[in-house]
Amino acid sequence: MTSDGLLELRSPTMVVRCRPAWGFAITALEDPSTGVNALWTRRGHEPAEFIRSLGAGGDDSTDSFLDRFVGGWFDMFPSVGHPGVVAGIPTQLHGEVPRLPWITVSADASHVEARVRTLRTPFEVVRRLEVHDDGVLVKMTIKNVGRESAPYAWGFHPCFDRAAFAGGRIHIDADSAEVPAPAYDPANSLLRDGQEFIWPHAVRSDGSPSDVSQIPLERDGRHEHICLTLRTGKMVVTAPALDRWFALTVEPEVFPYVLLWEDFGAAGASFWGEADVFTLEPSTNPGRGMDDAVRAHTVRTLEPRQEIQTTASAVWGRGEPPHDLS
């Protein structure tokens, strides 16, 4: 661990950097042969201090999140996506845990484990990263440490660097796909909102077809959200300039939905034009925010002392992507 809390794990196929004290953000999933980071981070951003204080919930929580948002890959819990109201309580943008400092339980050259307790809900979250020869394994555990049942939504939020995957494709085995309405950023959205489509063939606002699996070679100013229901839990993104592919695998019975967010330099949208990012956000939520989860009756409940664990993996592969998604 460096003096500023940065941890680095290494294997022959992956370099992982993370900061448990910064909401346990994973800031690098790096291909050691090229030095290319799959993850997008905010260059030069000096975040606000991570302390055990959440600030206001609801829409006001956006400011406290963005002050601390460094990019990378972080957990969303006990709410996901845009804030809403659950059990009469306003939630936080992306939940409590990415705002809080996590406590490192153990760490060495091949693993780090950290935990955090939420402030306004009765949960403890433990996350363990393990670097192996074939990639990184992420084990996540949530536990209700209170005396009453408590509602939650759960997911994680990896921000991918468009430049690393320029000209590539997103391969997802999706059971359904939808462009939610209304568009979050109508001025920069190319897609017709409210449409359901068969992945990856959507329709633009002007009626022309759009293959939304394609990653543009250059920043093109689009700002989109697409909601997907998974058939299987494996997602692959190709990086043709590197002759590489990146695979993210989740347990679909835990995270049956994925939100694809794209901000490729949208004017007036995020971070003063710095954004050049897409995400694949596995989640228990079928929409963009907690009000969607409430309407869809997908808010889950954890009983006192009950815990749930899930595992995700990430791999930098070489050559052709796996045939089951290629």
Characterise this structure.
This protein is mainly β. It has a single domain (7-318), classed as Beta-galactosidase, Chain A, domain 5, CATH 2.70.98.10. The protein is built from 2 helices and 22 strands. It has helices spanning 61-68, 290-296; strands at residues 7-10, 15-19, 25-30, 73-76, 85-86, 89-90, 103-107, 111-117, 123-132, 135-144, 150-152, 155-161, 170-178, 196-197, 201-203, 209-211, 223-239, 244-249, 257-264, 276-283, 300-302, 307-318. The strands form 5 sheets. Strands 4, 7, 8, 9, 10, 12, 13, 14, 17, 18, 19, 20 and 22 form a 13-stranded antiparallel sheet that branches. It has a 3-stranded antiparallel sheet with strand order 1-2-3, with no helix packed on it. Strands 5-6 form a two-stranded antiparallel ribbon. The radius of gyration is 19 Å and the shape is globular.
Keywords for this entry:
three-stranded antiparallel sheet, mainly beta, 326 residues, 2 helices, globular, Beta-galactosidase, Chain A, domain 5, 42% strand
Stretches with pLDDT under 50, minimum 5 residues: none
**Backbone CA Rg:** 19 Å
Distance between the termini: 38 Å
| H-E order | EEEHEEEEEEEEEEEEEEEEEHEE
- In percent, how much strand structure appears in the residues? 35-45%
> Which secondary-structure class do the elements indicate?
mainly beta
Number of helices: 2
State the helicity in percent bands: under 10%
CATH first level: Mainly Beta
How many structural units, i.e. domains? 1
- Care to count the β-strands? 22
